[in-house]
Amino acid sequence: MHTAPNQEKIWTTLGPEFGEDAGKKAIIVRALYGLKSAGASFRNHLGECMRALGYVPCLADPDLWIKPQTTKDGFEYYSYILCYVDDILVIHHNPKKVMDKIHKYFPLKEGSVGEDVTEELGDDEATYFQQVIGVLRWMVEVGRIDINTEVSLLSQHLALPRVGHLQAALHIMAYLRSKHNSRMVFDATAPEIDEGQFLRQDWSKQYEGAKEAIPPNALTPRGLGVTMRMYVDSDHAGDKVSRRSRTGFLIYLNMGLVQWLSKRQSTIETSVFGAEFVAMKQGIETCRGIRYKLRMMGVPIKGPTYVFGDNMSVIHNSSKVESVLKKKCNSVCYHAVRESVAMGETLVAHISTHENPADLMTKCLSGHKRRYLVEKVLYDIFDKHG
């Protein structure tokens, strides 16, 4: 927002970082972030820029700017510029030209302008791309969870793939050829659970009569019991087109990984808090289904499902009775998770984002963190040289 003229009369005393000018009084002429009028100043300045380019605000949404356009072949359409704070989305037959004009008003950060300039695939190439994605999806199903997020993202472009999407898919294939020696171990060893991490409280007044539903026709449990764990995470507004968040979770029976998910959420959440609660709810519902199947198979389940998440706010709101919801829009997921904890079906605890393997299911990681988390779930995929 520092490019907009300041609407307030403000001065400050210069600090030691100004050298010889330290101690002098200075008038602030630009709308600095944090000033009361900074948002309004930036909006007005942006409006002047849009009008100078010939755009007018949409009557239904003042952040959407519209301009009639005609291509060289006579096709008439509307060009759009969607503004969200200092993020700009341009829809135009030559978006680079429009961004260059905006750059004269607002210096754009180097590397911040992105567009898919690759051509659309022909029918045969599009079919080939869809086949490649089908193969990659099957590989994810049989255990290559290290490519789950990347394949999920590319799967969103099956209807209208471009050359860049095919290149990305082939890049994943090249990665698999290089890292083909992987093992997923279904270890029946019971995990070591630190019960001190999990808060147990009396929920009888908040959720009276809450109790995990046990199937009346379930088989009598026999054999050794299993312990369930889940690692869950979300990537808030990670989809830059729709701004939908992504849910990711890993579910373990004892030390064996049995289910994994990386999927874009069906609703747009306005906060990290909301996105994390949606992910937690989706994961808990999946665990509930697994617990039901295990009981119908006569498999004993030891205790609740131990859920680990890296958002401290969600953990506190899920595990503490005295928590009060401040956002009504998150109430369904909020109470669904808390009721699961109240009935003893689930317990939640915090885990550092650097140790949470569910991060692999929500973000395209690279470098040391990717290798560290992949080695938590797959064996022999990396040799000592990387």
Overview of the structural elements:
The protein is an alpha+beta fold. Helices cover about 30% and strands about 15% of the residues. The protein has helices spanning about 40-50, 95-105, 125-140, 150-155, 165-180, 270-295, 310-320, 330-340, 365-375, and strands at about 10-15, 25, 55, 65-70, 75-85, 85-90, 230-235, 245-255, 255-265, 305-310, 345-350. Helix 3 (about 125-140) packs antiparallel against helix 4 (about 150-155). The chain is globular, with a radius of gyration of 26 Å. The mean pLDDT is about 90.
Detail the topology: elements first, then pairings.
Layout: E1 11-13, E2 25-27, H1 38-52, E3 56-57, E4 64-70, E5 76-84, E6 87-91, H2 95-105, H3 123-141, H4 148-154, H5 163-178, E7 228-235, E8 246-253, E9 256-264, H6 272-296, E10 305-309, H7 312-319, H8 331-342, E11 346-350, H9 367-377
Parallel strand pairs: 7-10, 10-11
Antiparallel strand pairs: 1-2, 3-4, 4-5, 5-6, 7-8, 8-9
Question: What's the quick description here?
Answer:
The chain has 9 helices and 11 strands.
- Sheet with the most strands: spatial strand order: 9-8-7-10-11
Q: Helical percent range?
A: 25-40%
Query: Which ranges are low-confidence, i.e. pLDDT below 50, for 5 or more consecutive residues?
Result: none
- Average of pLDDT: 89
Overall structural class, as computed from helix and strand content, comes to alpha+beta
Beta-strand percent range: 15-25%
General form: globular
- The number of helices is 9
- Tell me the radius of gyration: 26 Å
The succession of helices and strands, N to C, reads EEHEEEEHHHHEEEHEHHEH
How far apart are the first and last residues' alpha carbons, in Å?
Answer: 43 Å
The largest β sheet comes out as: 5 strands, mixed
| Number of E-state strands | 11
